Amino acid sequence: MKISSINWGDDSAEKDPNLLNYFISQDAVDRLLMRQKNLVIGRKGAGKSAVRKKLSDTFSSRQNHYVLNISPKFQSIKTILNDKELTSGLGDEILFTHTWLRQIFLDCLCAVGHCERNRLSTESFEFARNVATQQNRTSKDIVENIADVIARIKGKVSNLGEFGINIEKELRNVADVDSLEHHFVEIANSGVQFIILIDDLDLGWNNSETANNLILGLLSATNYISSKTQNAFVCIFLREDVYSLLITKTQHSDKYRNVERIRWDKDSLIKLLSARINFNREQNREEYADDAFSAVFPLTIGTNNTDNWNFERTLSRPRELIQLSRHYSERCDSNIPDAEALKVSEIGYSEWKLDDLCTEYSNQYPGLVNIFSYWKTKFYRYKYHLKLVELEQMVIDIFIETELNEPWFNDLSRDTDIRGFLKVLYEIGFIGDFVLGGDGGSKTVYSYQGNHQPRFEEIDIHPCFRKAVGTVDRIRS
């Protein structure tokens, strides 16, 4: 098999037709299939969508199971977050709780109503069929449901506070929750299993009060549905940084701590690559390789073992290792592993990774691309290991000379908050905190590796960004 012909799969799990052929099952997936957890946490690119696809496929194959995948579009969330009525007093968590209940109940009733045309007619199944007919097989999206609820509210009051102690009763009424819930529960208790998988909530998320209430309302709605029937499983997929912020903004954080975190180590990531390599070998009618990784990658690159070298250039996520592998394989001209091709591919991969980082945090920290553009020109050929005294002057230069007018940056710049700026770089994974000495010797800790309070006495720029920003490479090969 020619290395350059390897198909590593689509970057998007939803668009990868072969994903389930080389899906790496983990204990986390088994726990989710047994419905032990209903909140999946992972960083962007950690494989949340792949897990959702696996759950959807598995549950769909089971009798009497209705699987609904709810993924709000980016523009839908932006519309919600920019709505003046929601941002000026109506966008409370309790409003979103009831609009999510309405959304989920309608989606489930539509699914049953469309598919159960010939089922024994009961009041609730007949109701579901009528809902499916009225909604034209599928219910409205979340934006339309919120608009409907707001229109009904505005017909009664100008703000939610006017409902007083009757707010929950009034919201259940305007959102038709009582009626929808009754038929939803009746159908579920008849033996129908509802599986509701909700993803892509981070699209457009900007850490505003409205954005946070939108997701907190969903979490509340999920717990409510779970309390009404055992035959409904609502599973939410959230980005880890979004979850970490949300959990500090609710008094009910204890209800949302039983989460399934998606974690990858070097062995599991190499196993992921090997599965994809063997899938390609099978497609080419070649034998299964016990050590598929070594059949494609060189054993060493410079003085490093290649598996370690590859892993160190990721933020411990599949999408990065797959991208690095793609950049490498496209440079190979034969079926022989090529260390030089891997070394050269690092440049293109590093540039991709820096662009990807700016995109990933474009809502929380807009303008990162300006900062790194300045970094690449002003600090070209700087060391990747820096001490605090060096960092302080670099950050001051960034504050003074970078053309960026964004609130988060303006606040840090105005206060000359050097540590605050370094915290941003640490949070997004661009730098790690270098810890000198101690048990096990010196080490560099990155934010994705777990809880750590950085001191920033010394830092390392992460290996995956070094080529992109033009650092001096210490290691010679």
TrEMBL record:
InterPro entries: Sll1717-like (IPR059206)
Domain of life (superkingdom): Bacteria
Name this polypeptide is given: KAP NTPase domain-containing protein
Native organism: Aeromonas rivipollensis
Lineage, top ranks: Bacteria, Pseudomonadati, Pseudomonadota, Gammaproteobacteria, Aeromonadales
